[in-house]
């Protein structure tokens, strides 16, 4: 069932956010928006075609099989035995993040995140008129949580903590000890944990994703987890995510909010795709993980051997690399323009992930090796020019 990930697929004129909407000039290589330039498993494509052939696209409900398939996937992949009744659905994880905030906080309430962090968290918090509180991660060789700072922020009246696990953009897979400590502190200060685990299946060899809610009964009762097959099988355009809420009171409250905004049902093709991917996509996923790991290793080596001004931070999961560019002789505020306009490679500016992302860039390396090499060569040429 594996696809040829070396194949260069033309995504232009497919309404691709990455290839059609995100930049103006067509000679710029897009390495930003978080989807993969790979085909999904063939079985997914076949199932969607079969369903589409029916030709009648009226209202549908969510079949019971979806719950069973999700439960089985989470059990096999993450050794977490969930109850089917804990599950809720939402169109996307973004919709869940936007809705969780009004469901469990009031305007002006404080919501905590670890930075640098996926920009949609801070955007959703401020969009909802809540106060964004950040606890900056500390970078030495790798990133670590400053637990003293985290506790201090919790003690200052935080209502909600939104965890990104694995963490976009730093590619970190949180360990059991880190998760337990975060969880214990949140419970000590009565802070509800929202765990966005959309990247949970993209984890490299030697690391293991642990759902924070799986660590104890108490943590399960004090958390709500967001997951989706979107990142795992490249299905983000299909709109079918789910929520795991073991605590029935929290679950009912959130269900009401999702219904209020009408995002509580996934798209028909999203269900078809996720069911087939979770049932038959394991081999494809193992192959894609190998390919991604090799891309990262290639990229990291390229930087250390050929562009020592840039360091790829250690990657434990996700296909979003985090590049420390602070040694390039360019004003941090102009870095992203430099990559776009001089190297002709579109990256995400680190600043968009929080203040301590300044001097960093995020690169999406879920693309064919040939494209990655082209991007790295372009970056090398541009950096060499400023060093002259
Ligand atoms: C941590 C995280 N959560 C959510 C999303 C978006 O999820 P969805 O496509 O389901 O809205 C992304 C996309 O990059 C992400 O990185």
UniProtKB/TrEMBL annotation:
Stretches assigned to coiled coil: none
Residues in Aminotransferase class I/classII large domain copies: 28-379
Catalytic class of the enzyme: lyase
A Pfam family this chain is assigned to: Aminotran_1_2
SUPFAM superfamilies: PLP-dependent transferases
Any one Gene Ontology molecular-function term assigned to this protein's record: cysteine-S-conjugate beta-lyase activity
Gene3D superfamilies named among the record's database cross-references: Aspartate Aminotransferase, domain 1, Type I PLP-dependent aspartate aminotransferase-like (Major domain)
Cofactor(s) needed by this chain: pyridoxal 5'-phosphate
Record's keyword terms, sorted: Lyase, Pyridoxal phosphate
Keyword match Lyase: yes
Listed EC numbers: 4.4.1.13
Domain of life: Bacteria
PANTHER family: PROTEIN MALY (PTHR43525:SF1)
Similarity comment: family membership: Belongs to the class-II pyridoxal-phosphate-dependent aminotransferase family. MalY/PatB cystathionine beta-lyase subfamily.
Protein name (Swiss-Prot/TrEMBL): cysteine-S-conjugate beta-lyase
Species per Swiss-Prot/TrEMBL record: Methylomusa anaerophila
Lineage: Bacteria, Bacillati, Bacillota, Negativicutes, Selenomonadales
Gene that this sequence comes from: patB_2
